[in-house]
Amino acid sequence: MLTFVSVSDEESTTTMCYILNPFSASCCETFLKILPLFEKGIKAGGKRHLTVFSANVAKVFVTEQRSGNNNINENMVVSVKVFKKATPNGKVTFYLGRRDFIDHLDYCDPVDGVVVVDPDYLKNRRVFGQLVTTYRYGREEDEVMGVKFSKELILCREQIVPIINPNMEMTPMQEKLVRKLGQNAHPFTFHFPPNSPSSVTLQQDGDDHGKPLGVEYNIRAYVADSEDDRQHKRSMVSLVIKKLQYAPPNRGQRLPSSLVSKGFTFSNGKITLEVTLDREIYYHGEKVAATVQITNNSKKSVKLIKCYIVQHTEITMVNAQFSKHVAQLETKEGCPITPGANLSKTFYLIPLAANNKDRHGIALDGHLKDEDVNLASSTLVQEGKSTGDACGIVISYSVRIKLNCGTLGGEMQTDVPFKLLQPAPGSVDKKRSNAMKKMKSIEQHRNVKGYYQDDDDNIVFEDFAKMRMNNVDMMD
């Protein structure tokens, strides 16, 4: 990670620039304070200007211009990563600017990209594209005697080459790719249908090597005379994408809470348990704070407190439901809570996918190879609808508090629902998350074959390597 620091004296025409590596942005000001040359350059009464740029992409240019009023203007040009994948025979290539597409409830981001085709290979044939979803609700190894536990649906299909609508409106990324790749580049746009489910993958056991359960999306392009012709693997390319939901810009002011009480046979009085969360919507990686208040007006004692974050999963295709603990805590602090005593305490839990690796049945936010993944986000629906109307795999979360009242007293519990989501685009939390992901992605792919950069248009191509078929018979 490179940190670019620009420093100037308000009364001086001299600008000093330093590149600190591997210093972080938070260390820059401290570093400059102890830099003798910098201290000597400050005149009496002058003010210091400090500008910090944190660059976590492959290529960054920082240019500085001194204006007449001694202000500094900084322009930073950042490379853009583009995903690339070609057919086995190398004649048709996908270019996609992103693989995550956001469902905003009232609309969904379109799937926009570019296909490059070798014109000599077409021979009066056409190139067709499809947006496909695969809903797997059973294990692949259990499919016997022709019984399938998956459904494949073609959500959108259209002819890409020759283009049907030559006046189609292109996105800035498509315009840049078409300009760079030349006349053999053809843009395309697919749209998700309303109420289509989000991408969800159910984690497998370590010994299970079949296709995972869940909802998966991919885009395809293939060469054929008509869209109903048989698709040949040598001239077909497919790329997995994800459809996700983000948190609304406003988290709301409501504090979810639950109040329960339990009485005992042959004993007077009750134990009252109240649980309150500090917010309704949490982002992935945030602490979930649960304030527990226990009032013991019975003759029993509370011996143990258990706290869980529970992930609830509903597979609508087979009407199956199950729950998994994704974070848990047990404590005897403040226990035993004897008759007539009270306890008020806040417990903190962090639900993370990293702490639930190789646990069967944990739902994830779709899973792409060599990419960090979050726990599946809570399923959101449009206002006026319920989650019972959602299709695919429906995810929800709750905080569960259990009190152990001894062998004869048994247990009492309550659940408080909340939502676990990704930060909304443009928010500070989302920018911080994206910066960390991009930096890690660049580090992973540095010096790796298949990842290269175009110096002219600031485009970084990530090529999905696939076996090329060199057999002459395969080229037709």
Automatic annotation (TrEMBL):
Any one GO cellular component localisation term in the record: cytoplasm
GO MF entry, a single one: G protein-coupled receptor binding
Gene3D superfamilies: 2.60.40.640, 2.60.40.840
Keyword line: Sensory transduction, Vision
Domain of life of the native organism: Eukaryota
Pfam families: Arrestin_C, Arrestin_N
PROSITE patterns according to UniProt: ARRESTINS
Domain Arrestin C-terminal-like: 267-425
A Gene Ontology BP annotation from the UniProt entry: photoreceptor cell maintenance
Protein family membership: Belongs to the arrestin family.
Name assigned to this protein: Phosrestin-1
